[in-house]
Amino acid sequence: MFRLFKNTSLLLFLVLTFGHGQTQTEWAPPDNIKSVQFQTNISTVVFPVVQLGEIMTLSFDDLNADEADYYYRIKYYNSDWSPTTLFQNEYMDGFDNLRIANYTTSFNTLQKYTHYRLQIPNQAVQLKVSGNYMIEIYSADEELVFSRKFCLYEPSATVQAAVYRPQNMERFNTHQSLHFSITPKNLFFTNPNENIKVVLLQNEQWDTAISNIKPQYFSGTTLDYRYEAPTQFEGGNEYLFFDTKDLRVTTPNIQFTNRANLFETYLKTDPVRGLSDYTYAPDINGNFEIRNIMRPGDSHMQADYSLVHFGLAYPYELNPDEAIYIYGAFNQFQLNELNQMVYNPSLEIYEGVLLLKQGFYNYKYVFKQGDRVDKNLLSGTHAQTENNYLILVYYRAIGALNDALVGVGKINSFELQN
Fold it and tell me: Which residues touch 1 (CB under 8 Å, ≥6 apart)?
């Protein structure tokens, strides 16, 4: 069930890496790993934040379809994703480096794949403390395949929040500002200016997280955060979408479909929305949901894959240090060669092709220049845009060695206030 490291060079790399206290980021999967998702008892989520003891499920597909062995390891981190000083037995009961035993090969699909599912906690692993965790998936050769963040919380504080338009008129139509308060329930915050850490997330994405926010006011035991600029996010725009639950038919956003060696889905060419007025369109904030009505049964094993063709009407060839990417939770919002678009001068559009499992997908186009990524240059940014916000409240008690996640606030900007 569990293994020791045989690759001493990998072990040395990990020791050196985690010994220097840098912030840990997620490791993107290789080309053969697709449809990585977390499911909670409520819904499919990009980034799971569940109460300590609740069950969540990680699932993914391996397009090699050879029923390979994959192993998982779970690590604990501080609120800023720096390595913890806790020993493993202080945050976890169970063994490390366990094999994922729940897997099934796809049935009646053109694209063969092996579907893997892992529940946490399970009989072999129980997590003991709240806070930040990373699950790492390794191959049988002890190579890191991919990793994903998740959080466990304990309901020791309540969070009240609201989303406002900024008072600064230059940002009144483009940004959203979070105001919130934190009230402890069954604990006392000692020296909250130093021991309380707050992280704000828009649509469950860590690359734009806001942190290092100090309480602005104290009202009894309640901490108030009613800043203007420090808690602002660009509103962005509603995500574009398509639905491939039936690969034999077209939908309003699909121009036509084709069946060759694999199914092919051609989307309608999207316009650049950067200078357009805001139009409300319900979305799932960049996420995707696997679903299939072509065949009865479990969509996780009987949904097929299709080559989805994207087109963006942008009639200018970019400079060598610039690029446009298709952006969404389908690859955990990563930017790489697979989702980079290529200019077609004959049609004056940027084109891209992604291999995606049947389902409902949100996506948008983002612009990168050098190391800078602008998520909203091509799609526009509006204060009216519907966004989900997470407020994560960490507390390190005096003498403690970990940042406990003691409160979670959730608010949607659909309730925007002026």
Answer: 95, 98, 99, 124
